[in-house]
Specification:
By secondary structure, this protein is an alpha/beta fold. The protein has nine helices and eleven strands. α9 links the parallel β8 and β9. It holds the Pfam family SIR2.
C-alpha cells in the first residue's frame, strides 16, 4: 500500500484543487449538497450580480441572513489546511480553492488562487477600496466611507469580494498554468459540480497530469479522475490515506 505522502514524494510541483468538504471539520457547513446553504431556492437570484446592481439593499439583507458571518470569520484551519501548508517545505504547491472561507490564507499557504473570491473582504465598485468584512458586521447595508479631495464621501454600496452568479471566476489563466505544469493534480473535498472549475481534471488529462480525488464521495463525473480515495476529512491523515 502507498500512503498519500509516499505517492507524491517524487514530485516537484503539485496543483491542489480544494472544495467545501475540507472545511467541514472547521465547523463550516457545505454550500452545496443535501444540507448546503445554496439549497435555498432564492440563492441564484439574490446572490447574482444583477440583483446586487439593481437591489443593493435587499441583496445585503439576504447576504447577511444566508451566511453566518461570525462563524466564517472566526473559523480556524484544520489538519488538511495545515498539511497543505507543510507541503511547501518540500514541494512547490499551488492551491486553487473554490472556498471563500479564507482558511488557506489563515494557514499561511504561500500560493493561493481564490477562484470564487473571499468572504472576509468587500470592495467598493466605484473607487476600488477594499474593506475587511469584520469591520462591517454592524452595518445592514455597508457603504464606502472614502472621502474625495473635495471632502465628499463616496457612499457607494459595497460589494462582497466573492464571485456572484453572473460573474466569471477569477485567475483562470493562472489556474490552467499551475495545472499544466504540475506533476500531480490533487482534488480535495470537491465533487466537481461547479463550472468551469470542474473541468480541471479533464484539462490535466490533456497535459498528462495524473489526478487523484480525495473526498467523502465520488465526483459527479469520474471520467478524468485517475484515482479516488474515500475519506472523512474529520479523520484526515496523509500517512493513513492509501492510494492504490
Amino acid at each position: 500500500m502507498t500512503s498519500l505522502n509516499e505517492w507524491i514524494q517524487n514530485d516537484h510541483k503539485i496543483a491542489v484543487l480544494t472544495g467545501a468538504g475540507i472545511s467541514v471539520p472547521s465547523g463550516i457547513p457545505p454550500f452545496r449538497g443535501k444540507n448546503g446553504l445554496y439549497q435555498n431556492k432564492n440563492v441564484e437570484r439574490y446572490l447574482s450580480l444583477l440583483y446586487f446592481q439593481t437591489h443593493p439593499s435587499e441583496f445585503w439583507t439576504f447576504y447577511w441572513s444566508l451566511f453566518d458571518a461570525r462563524l466564517l470569520l472566526s473559523a480556524k484551519p484544520n489538519a488538511v489546511h495545515l498539511w497543505l501548508k507543510n507541503l511547501e517545505q518540500t514541494y512547490e504547491v499551488t492551491i486553487i480553492t473554490q472556498n471563500i472561507d479564507g482558511l488557506h490564507e489563515k494557514a499561511t499557504s504561500s500560493k493561493i488562487i481564490e477562484v470564487h473570491g473571499a468572504f472576509n473582504r468587500c470592495i467598493c465598485p466605484k473607487c476600488g477600496t477594499f474593506y475587511q468584512t469584520q469591520s462591517l458586521l454592524d452595518q445592514k447595508v455597508p457603504h464606502c466611507s472614502v472621502s474625495s479631495k473635495d471632502g465628499k464621501t463616496c457612499g457607494t454600496v459595497l460589494k462582497p469580494d466573492i464571485v456572484l452568479f453572473g460573474e466569471a471566476v477569477r485567475d483562470l489563466r493562472a489556474v490552467e498554468q499551475a495545472v499544466s505544469h504540475a506533476d500531480h493534480l490533487l482534488v480535495l473535498g470537491s465533487s466537481l459540480g461547479v463550472a468551469p472549475i470542474n473541468f480541471l481534471p479533464e484539462f490535466a488529462k490533456e497535459y498528462g497530469v495524473p489526478t487523484l480525488l480525495i473526498n467523502d464521495r465520488p465526483a459527479l463525473n469520474m471520467d478524468a479522475i485517475d484515482q479516488f480515495c474515500q475519506v472523512d476529512f474529520a479523520d484526515f491523515d496523509a500517512n493513513a490515506i492509501n492510494v492504490d
